[in-house]
Amino acid sequence: AQGARVVAKAKDAKDYSKLTEDVPLVLDNVAIAKILPHRYPFLLVDKVIAFEPGKSAVGVKNVTANEPQFTGHFPDRPIMPGVLMVEAMAQLGGVVCLQDPVSDGKGEFFFAGIEDVKFRKPVVPGDTLVMEMELLKWRPSAGIAVMKGKAYVDGKVAVQVGKFKFALVKS
Hints:
GO terms for molecular function: (3R)-hydroxyacyl-[acyl-carrier-protein] dehydratase activity. Its EC number is 4.2.1.59. Involved in unsaturated fatty acids biosynthesis. Catalyzes the dehydration of short chain beta-hydroxyacyl-ACPs and long chain saturated and unsaturated beta-hydroxyacyl-ACPs. The protein has 171 residues and is an alpha+beta fold. It has a single domain, classed as Hotdog Thioesterase (Thiol Ester Dehydrase, Chain A). Helix content is 17%, strand content 36%. The relative contact order is 0.17.
């Protein structure tokens, strides 16, 4: 196939499957849904593979052709909209901020600002978007969290955000 890459160590489906055997599963989609208020089709974090409470998380979004945005963005060349990549990263940030020690999980975090966004690589169906979010600052008295993040596909940066600002709104 045109553009196909050959991995010398992998011979069949079992071998390719083993390439991810060392990737831990910290939170699956059921556990994520207990933390975040989002639901299909807008829950954009499929699993969390690394988590340091109050500090950072690494999560995965498996991009599939049957997602509703691809019917119009773009029909002949489906590309994941940049705003949805940023939203997926923000949701991963919510996994950090809606748990101890940052918060008690009550309420919701909303965007309060975003700065220094760079899109580096198109993300298309079949890609695995691996995202990292780091908490830079938490001001409990104001309910403001500041984070930064990057997302990768095949080891290459797809999007980076220098600063996310979130506001905690208590229910």
